[in-house]
What we know:
This protein is of the alpha/beta class. It folds into two domains: 1-87 and 164-252, P-loop containing nucleotide triphosphate hydrolases (Rossmann fold), CATH 3.40.50.300; 97-160, no CATH class. The protein has ten helices and nine strands. The strands form two sheets. The chain has a six-stranded mixed beta sheet with strand order 5-6-7-3-8-9, sandwiched between helices. Strands 2-1-4 form a three-stranded antiparallel beta sheet, with helices on one face. Helix 4 (103-114) crosses helix 5 and helix 5 (119-130) packs antiparallel against helix 6 (145-157). The longest helix has 14 residues, at 175-188. 41% of the residues are buried.
Amino acid sequence: MSESDSARPVTIRTETISKSYGDFAALSEVSFQVRKxxxxxxxxxxxxxxxxxxxxxxxxxxxxGGRASVLGFDPTDHVQRIExxxxxxxxxxxxxxxxxxxxxxxxxxxxxxxxxxxGAKAIDRVVERCAIGSVLHKPIxxxxxxxxxxxxxAQALLHDPEVLILDEPTSGLDPLQIRDVxxxxxxxxxxxxxxxxxxxxxxxxxxxxxxxxxxxGRIVFTGTTAQLSEGGRGVEARFYELTRGKTAKEVA
Length: 252
């Protein structure tokens, strides 16, 4: 990380977060940070703890221990979570789409729900940015998964949030759809802080500035994409090196 990068304020922070369900520890002392203006890939195999962490960051779950903050707000605090919702966009892996609505109807619904001023301009902005104008008046259930993902992204962007949290945004898409969504993420990363979870190694090189790797509920790597593949071993080799052991450990 360069000196100018380290001077940027921390936007997303977790401090020794744990989450248990009975005897099962989904997260164990998870700590990392994402600075303003960064696209960070939250990398791990399925079941590693990515979605649990993101649900804590967005206020959908409370941790069993530790604390989190996004833009200085505590997502577990009811009042602060409402304030945070005005500045945070969240796209779950299964986006909250009303399949009998059209994209136009859905976006108008969220404009009214959020009580946005200038709702028509906001809709025009996200329709153009997410390239959904050609399907704007088609029922969502008739759209391809790629277009449904774009509609979900448009909903998450409607209030022009400072931070985007995206859970497996390219999961289940075909190669052309993946290319389009990655291009959109790179474009959005020019003026927003983005944390996106993925289990796809190619996603790291395609969109990320930095990587947070989680395995068995523990952080095993944080750093830049260049640091992850240092020594010429590449992302894939380092991924297997860091996740193949039975016990995860911190790696500087």
